[in-house]
Design goal:
Layout lengths: L1 H17 L13 H16 L13 E5 L8 E6 L6 E5 L10 E5 L9 H7 L7 H9 L4 E6 L8 H9 L4 H23 L17 H9 L5 H18 L5 H24 L4 E4 L2 E4 H25 L16 H16 L1 H12 L11 H10 L18
Parallel strand pairs: 1-5
Antiparallel strand pairs: 1-2, 2-3, 4-5, 6-7
Helix pairs in contact: 2-6, 3-6, 6-10, 7-10, 8-9, 8-11, 9-13, 10-11, 11-12, 11-13
Bound molecules: zinc ion.
Length: 392
């Protein structure tokens, strides 16, 4: 009750002050850091598809500036490749998913959302009516929203961490544009049982990320082997990232085989370990396959596109993360692309996103990597790996 009263009065104050706001957003898209980001979005859109038929060139991005000073109105500018920018003055604040980005989906949820869809449904937020009507009038039914410019000093602990990493705000935002737009336009429409223009496996169901990390990666009995496994993968990447010589191919195969065998060894150790999913559980192998698809793939496509666009260099690519599936997914895909070439990579990603079941030979980045890069056949997890409850 007390909380409710506080929220009501805060809302009243915000509404009252917004009515007295200034409302000139005509200069927003000429701000130098916004201009830099717009050029960067143009550059990544010009690269075209690196994964199946997905490209940022087909989707709008809304840049949003919401000053802390609520007497000033927020501004938005809608970007779409090779189309004029459109500025919108915001009459109320947008609730972003994180301080850096938000998502808007104007489509109704279909009758049969998947388990992932039922979760994401509650996280999607409306945008102010003036922005929604502008997007709809352009025929845009979904959009990723990015905070621009990113001001590290206004982001608390996140801003401190990004500043400490010497993160370049333009690169951070460009990667988010590609990565989050993939979630929004490819995965989420399938999860929400909506019309969709890209393929994504309907059987995809997200395991508990924290449980996956603590049980499959960092538990005492596997943390050392997992560390060596990731070292072997990065060794393989370092061999192939700048070279395509025959001698490098031999070294690559050795490093890739070391990676595959260490990972399979780890799966033997965690043989009875499982990770919760909505309504059940998965073994580590199946859970990691799922997260490499969900997060490793968008992460890789955002890196590869940004590097090819000249927005970032290969050396700036992150090589570690607590949620190691981002890193393992990224580098398996990148090594695979170096080995098979860009055209075959797009065919492979097309087959991955259309795989009929999680045990399909194309349904796992790890199995495709093991086969095509290391020459090792990895058996899919048995279908009985889906348990009714997680075991430790
Ligand atoms: Zn993501």
């Amino acid at each position: 009750m007390r909380i409710h009263a506080v929220i009501v009065s805060a809302t009243f104050v915000a509404t009252a002050s917004l009515s007295a706001q200034t409302s000139d957003c005509s200069a927003y898209s000429r701000d130098s850091s916004v201009v830099a980001l717009l050029h960067s979005l143009d550059a990544v859109a010009a690269v075209g598809s690196v994964w199946d038929n997905y490209t940022l060139a087909r989707h709008p991005i809304v840049l949003v500036d919401q000053p802390r000073d609520t007497t000033r109105s927020g501004c938005a500018v809608i970007w779409r490749y090779r189309e004029p920018l459109q500025e919108v003055t915001l009459g109320s604040r947008i609730r972003m998913s994180t301080p850096l980005y938000g998502m808007w989906d104007g489509n109704a949820v279909g009758p049969h959302p998947t388990a992932n869809g039922q979760i994401i449904q509650t996280a999607l937020r409306p945008v102010p009516a003036e922005l929604e009507s502008t997007l709809r009038s352009r025929g845009d039914m979904r959009a990723v929203l990015l905070t621009a410019p990113i001001r590290f000093d206004e982001l608390g602990a996140l801003g401190k961490a990004l500043a400490g990493m010497k993160a370049d705000p333009t690169i951070v935002s460009t990667q988010l544009a590609v990565h989050e737009s993939y979630h929004l336009h490819s995965q989420i429409p399938v999860w929400l049982d909506q019309p969709h223009e890209y393929s994504w496996p309907k059987w995809d169901v997200q395991p508990d990320r924290r449980m996956l990390t603590s049980r499959c990666y960092s538990a005492d009995n596997v943390s050392d082997i997992h560390r060596r496994e990731m070292e072997a993968l990065l060794r393989a990447w370092d061999i192939v990232k700048d070279s395509s010589s025959e001698s490098a191919r031999g070294q690559l195969r050795d490093a890739a085989r070391a990676y595959v065998s260490l990972r399979l060894e780890r799966y033997r150790i965690v043989d009875t370990t499982s990770v919760a999913i909505p309504g059940g559980a998965l073994r580590c192998m199946a859970a990691e396959d799922m997260m490499e698809l969900e997060e490793g793939a968008p992460q890789w496509m955002s890196y590869d596109t940004a590097v090819r666009a000249g927005v970032m260099t290969l050396d700036a690519v992150g090589r570690s993360a607590t949620d190691a599936f981002y890193v393992s997914g990224t580098f398996q895909l990148w090594i695979l692309q170096r080995v098979v070439g860009r055209d075959e990579m797009r065919r492979i990603s097309g087959r991955i996103t259309r795989a009929a079941s999680p045990t399909d030979k194309d349904a796992s980045i790890f199995r495709v990597f093991a086969k095509r890069v290391a020459g090792v056949d990895v058996k899919p997890p048995a279908s009985s790996s889906r348990h009714s409850s997680p075991e430790s």
